[in-house]
Structures are given as C-alpha cells and as structure tokens.
Amino acid sequence: MKKEATLNTINNKSLLKTMAAVALPIALQSLIGSSLNLVDNLMVGSLGEAELNAVGVSVQFYFVHWMLLYGFTSGTATFMAQYFGVKDFHNIRKTVGFALTVTVSVSMLFFLTALIFPHYVLRIFTRFPEIIELGSGYVRACAPAFLFTAVTVPFTSALRATQQTRLPLYISGAAFLTNTFLNYLLIFGSWGAPKLGVAGAALATMIARGLEMSLILYMVFGRKNKLCGPIREFFSYTKSSAVKIVKNAVPTTINETMWGLGTSLYVAAFARIGVTEGAAVQACSTINNLFIMAAFSIGDATLILVGQKLGEGKLDYAYQLAKKMVKIGLVIGLAAGGLLIVFGKPLLSLFEFTDRGAHFALLILIVYGCTMWLTVYNAVNVTGVLRCGGDTRFAMLAEVLAVWCVGVPVAFLTALVLQWPIYFAVLAVKLEDVVKGIAVTKRFFSKKWVKNVISE
C-alpha cells in the first residue's frame, strides 16, 4: 500500500505545470526552427516550383547531418538528465565535451563534402538536371553551417537536460529573425543587396547559424552559466566514461541517422515522380513540421523529467510518470493533427502552386493530419521513454527496421513501380508508423527500459 501511495503522488496539475515549464520552450524553439524553414520555402517558392524543389532536395543533406548530430546528443542526454538528477555538473561538462569531440569531427566530413561534391550529393535525391544545378549552389554556400551546428547541438542538449530550456528558445528566436531579414535582402536583392536567389537563401541560413553558435557560447561562458567551467574540464573525460557514453549513444546515432536517411529517401522517391509532386511534398513537409516538431517536444520533456527521476533512483515513480507523459503526448498529437487539417489550406495558399500542385498538397496535408497522433505517440516512446532509461538499442531496432523494411520499400514501390497518386503513396508509407507503434508499446509495458545508467 505504501508503494502504491507513493506512485499516486504524481499530481496531474503539478505535472502539467512542470511539463509546461520544460516542454513549452522546447516546443516554441521547434516552432521557430520550422517557421524558419517555412519562411525560406515561401520566399524561394515565390521564384517558382523548380526553385522550391531545389531547396527541398538540398536541405535533405543538412537534415541527415542534423539527425546524425541529434541522434548522438540524444544518447548523451540520457547521462546529462540522470546526472542532473544528482546535480553532478562535473560529469555533465565531461559529457558535453565528449559530444563536441564527436560532432565536430563528423561535421568536418559533411563540410568538405558539401564544398567539393555538391552535385554528387544532390543526385541521390533527384534526377532532374535543372534541380541539381540550382541546388548545388545552395549546398556549397551553406557548407559552414555544418561546423556551426556541430557546436550548437551539444550545448543545446545540455541546456535542455539541465532544465534551462528558455535559453535555446531565445537564441533560436534571434537566429530566426536574422535569417528572415537576410533572406529578404539576398534572395530578392532588396535595399541594394545582390539578388542571389536560391544561393541567397543558403547564405542567409549560414550566417544565422553562425550567430546562433556565437550566442550560445556567449550565454554559457560569457554569462557564467551553471554549465560553465574550465575548458580542460569539458575534455577531461576518461576512456571508460567515453566507452560508457558511446555504448548508449551509438544506437541513438544509428537510429536518427538511418531514420533521417530513410525519410530523405521518401522525399527522393516522391520527387522522382515529377517537379510538381516534389514541390507539393516539400511544402507539406514544411507545414507539417510547424505542428509535429512542437508536439515532439513532449518526447524531449519525457527524457528530461523521467530521466531525472531514474537518476534519483525512483524507478517505480519514473514508470508511472512516463505513463502519464505518453497519454499527454497522445492528446497533443490528436489536437495538432486536427489543427493541421483546419489550417492546412490557408497555409498552402501562401505558396505559388499550380491548381494541380495545390490539390496534391491539400490531400497530403490531410494524410499527415489524420496520422499525426500515431507519429507523436511513437516519438514520445522512442525519443523520450526508451532513451531516458538507456534502452537505446531496442529503440534503434524498432525505428530503423520499420523505416527501412517497411517505409522505404513502400515509398519506391508505390511512387515509381505502381505509380500511385502522390497522396496515396504518402499514406501507404505511414504503415511504418503502425509497425513501430506495436513494437514500442510492447516494450513500454515490459519495463525493460526502467534503468539507472549512471550507477551501472
């Protein structure tokens, strides 16, 4: 009875208040990031469907890079959240330092590839020469953003894990305003600036990412944040601690990278149908991200809040807390999906579509809206529940197998072999979410993910 009473002390009102303090800034930051992409696409899209398609396939390379970095830092965030549960900032700094070592090394490879081989990269995602030619300028001009992001992502993860979620929000807001202003100047040649078109959008994004990195370093070291410490402390990690982190982070890295590659191949399959279909998918993905990335903040909040309790050794409490977080995620997923359907048409009217393209886009948005609850449910379980307890290997297998054994084959089969209409092809790919949902639900109730990783 005493144990049950302890579990029932999770007060819904108190939980919602705490979750709002953690999740809302993350949601707003995600919304700003998605809005930045929307502004990019709206401005570039006004130049034509070919330009919109070129930017759409070009950013897939950056998307894969970001997912790789996000995957690795998600694995390190398990330790950061649990160390925060016992207020061990020394080990949090060492974890950040090790994450930086890895992310900067990997990003250097992406940077050099973008500078030297942009045409080869774009051939992975499209078969149209005019799209490759337009996109290559974007990829090359934006190449330094890889290095800036390599520094920003680990520090953002650390700030979130230590429940300082407002700082990344403010910094993202500044980057958004900078990017939007520079887009206006450089895409259209406003106020005497050179008219660079697609390359101007890339240059604006690169400068904004540089500002974002500078601000986050200033807030941590210049303002003496609680993460601040001697530089040597960040890189004082031992071989044993690095191995421990790698064992947890490699599955999350593979998970997010393979998921990113897989979803990029969805875009590649759909874009090969035609320029109009590719532009419709790109616009819908951008609008969908406005809603779904904000909803995904529940997964990040779950990792932070439940991970903290696991670090404190309150395993039963953490399990019950995770249950409530999953239920909240389902409600938010349903609400976000409904809002996407309601506001989809007005948002699509902002794009310069042909009648055929607008029709395709509206039907694709309806598919995204009707299935969003399942997508968010899976995200909360994979990025929140399973990762907070270090169950990253199972999370990786569930996601990667669903995407590559179900989603990718279905995308190419329906789009290129069966030649289904684009909206039916997009719907068919959602079968991967069904398969993934069954797997993660069984794992959740098994309780095999309920572990304290910092005491192992």
UniProtKB/TrEMBL annotation:
GO CC aspect terms: plasma membrane
Alphabetized UniProt keyword annotations: Antiport, Cell membrane, Ion transport, Membrane, Transmembrane, Transmembrane helix, Transport
GO-annotated biological processes: monoatomic ion transport
Pfam families tied to this protein: MatE
Record membrane topology: Multi-pass membrane protein
Family affiliation: Belongs to the multi antimicrobial extrusion (MATE) (TC 2.A.66.1) family.
Name by which UniProt lists this protein: Probable multidrug resistance protein NorM
Organism: Zhenpiania hominis
